[in-house]
C-alpha cells in the first residue's frame, strides 16, 4: 500500500520506504528524496547533504552546471533500471519534460505507484514523450490542467520561431529568445542547428547547461557570448538565447536593434508582455494530453499537484475517475 500526503513535497510511505518527491524546501520528514529534473523549483533537496537523493545522472550534472556547485549523497538512477529498497522497488522512466527528467515508478507485490514529475506527452527535438504505465496510484502534475490550455502542433511552432529569427536577421535586427537554461535552451539550440545555418549564441549560464548535455552524447553547436559569440552578435548574423530572468527593456538598452521573443505555454494567457513576440512552446503536457495520459494509465486513485490541480481533479471526477488535489 502507498500512503500519499503533502509535506512540502509529495510524501510517500510504502513498505520499507518513506520518501519525499520533489520537496519544495529542505525537509526533515524523510531521509530519502527524489528529484525529478533540474529546474530550480524542483531541486531544493540538492542543498541538503544529509538526505539520500535519487536523481538521474543527467539531472545531477545539469544542477551542478547551473549552480557551479557539487552535490553530495546522491544515488544516480539509470532509466528503466530497477532499484530494490526492502519490500519496494523503484524505477525511473523518461518523462519527456527536459533533458534528464524522470518519472518514478514504485511497486510492491500488490500495488503499483507512478509519479509523473513534470512531463510532456508529445515528442520534442530533445525528448521522447513519456510512456503511460498502468498503475493503481497516479500522482500527476497539472500545471496546465485547465480546459483552455490546448497547445498548437509543435512542428508548426518550430517553423514560426525559425521564420521569425530569419526575418529579423534579414531586416538588420538581432533576434533574442528568452528561455529556461535547462530544457527550452537545448531544444532551441537543436532547432537552429538542425533546420538552419544560423549560428546560436548563448548566455554563459546556457553555455554551461549545453556543455553538460553534450557530455551525455548530444552534439549541440553554440557560441558563448562572452567568448567567440561576441563577434557574431556585433554582426547581427546569429540568434541569441538568454535566460528568462533578463528583462526585454534592459536587453533593448544593450542591443537597440534587437527583437525579443519568449517561448512558453503561458503565452496562451499572457501573450508577449514586454517582448516583441511570444511563441506557445511548452515542455509540459496540455489539458487534453493530461486527460489522455490519465485514461491510458487506468489508475484507481489519482492525486493532482501544482498548477490547476483542483480544477483538473474536478474534471477527472466528472469522468468517473477517483481524483483529488494534493496541493
UniProtKB/TrEMBL annotation:
Phylogenetic classification of the source organism: Archaea, Thermoproteota, Methanosuratincolia, Candidatus Methanomethylicales, Candidatus Methanomethylicaceae
Identification of the protein by name: Metallo-beta-lactamase domain-containing protein
InterPro entries found in the cross-reference section: MBL, Metallo-B-lactamas, RibonucZ/Hydroxyglut_hydro, RMMBL
Gene3D superfamilies: Ribonuclease Z/Hydroxyacylglutathione hydrolase-like (3.60.15.10)
Domain of life of the source: Archaea
Organism (species): Candidatus Methanomethylicus mesodigestus
Domain Metallo-beta-lactamase: 28-151
Ranges of residues in domain Zn-dependent metallo-hydrolase RNA specificity: 281-307
PANTHER family: CLEAVAGE AND POLYADENYLATION SPECIFICITY FACTOR FAMILY MEMBER, INTEGRATOR COMPLEX SUBUNIT 11
Gene Ontology terms, MF aspect: RNA endonuclease activity
Coiled-coil annotated residue ranges, if any: none
Amino acid at each position: 500500500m502507498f500512503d500519499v500526503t503533502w509535506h512540502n513535497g509529495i510524501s510517500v510511505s510504502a513498505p520499507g520506504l518513506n520518501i519525499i518527491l520533489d520537496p519544495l524546501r529542505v525537509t526533515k520528514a524523510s531521509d530519502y528524496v527524489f528529484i525529478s529534473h533540474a529546474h530550480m523549483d524542483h531541486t531544493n533537496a540538492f542543498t541538503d547533504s544529509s538526505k539520500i537523493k535519487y536523481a538521474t545522472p543527467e539531472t545531477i550534472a545539469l544542477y551542478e552546471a547551473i549552480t557551479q556547485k557539487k552535490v553530495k549523497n546522491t544515488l544516480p538512477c539509470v532509466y528503466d533500471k530497477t532499484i530494490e529498497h526492502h519490500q519496494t522497488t523503484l524505477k525511473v522512466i523518461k518523462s519527456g519534460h527536459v533533458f534528464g527528467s524522470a518519472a518514478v515508478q514504485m511497486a510492491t507485490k500488490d500495488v503499483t505507484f507512478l509519479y509523473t514529475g513534470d512531463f510532456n506527452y508529445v515528442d520534442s527535438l530533445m525528448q521522447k514523450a513519456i510512456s503511460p504505465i498502468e498503475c493503481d496510484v497516479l500522482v500527476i502534475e497539472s500545471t496546465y490542467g485547465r480546459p483552455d490550455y490546448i497547445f498548437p502542433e509543435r512542428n508548426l511552432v518550430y517553423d514560426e520561431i525559425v521564420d521569425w529569427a530569419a526575418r529579423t536577421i534579414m531586416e538588420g535586427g538581432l533576434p533574442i529568445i528568452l528561455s529556461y537554461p535547462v530544457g527550452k535552451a537545448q531544444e532551441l539550440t537543436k532547432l537552429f542547428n538542425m533546420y538552419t545555418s544560423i549560428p546560436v549564441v548563448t548566455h554563459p549560464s546556457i553555455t554551461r547547461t549545453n556543455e553538460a548535455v553534450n557530455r551525455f552524447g548530444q552534439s549541440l553547436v553554440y557560441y558563448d557570448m562572452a567568448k567567440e559569440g561576441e563577434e557574431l552578435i556585433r554582426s547581427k548574423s546569429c540568434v541569441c538565447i538568454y535566460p528568462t530572468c533578463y528583462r526585454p527593456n534592459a536587453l533593448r538598452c544593450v542591443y537597440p536593434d534587437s527583437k525579443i521573443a519568449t517561448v512558453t505555454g503561458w503565452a496562451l494567457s499572457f501573450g508577449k508582455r514586454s517582448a516583441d513576440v511570444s511563441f506557445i512552446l511548452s515542455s509540459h503536457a496540455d489539458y487534453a494530453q493530461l486527460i489522455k495520459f490519465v485514461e491510458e494509465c487506468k489508475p484507481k486513485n489519482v492525486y493532482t499537484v501544482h498548477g490547476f490541480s483542483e480544477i483538473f481533479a474536478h474534471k477527472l471526477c466528472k469522468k468517473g475517475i477517483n481524483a483529488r488535489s494534493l496541493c
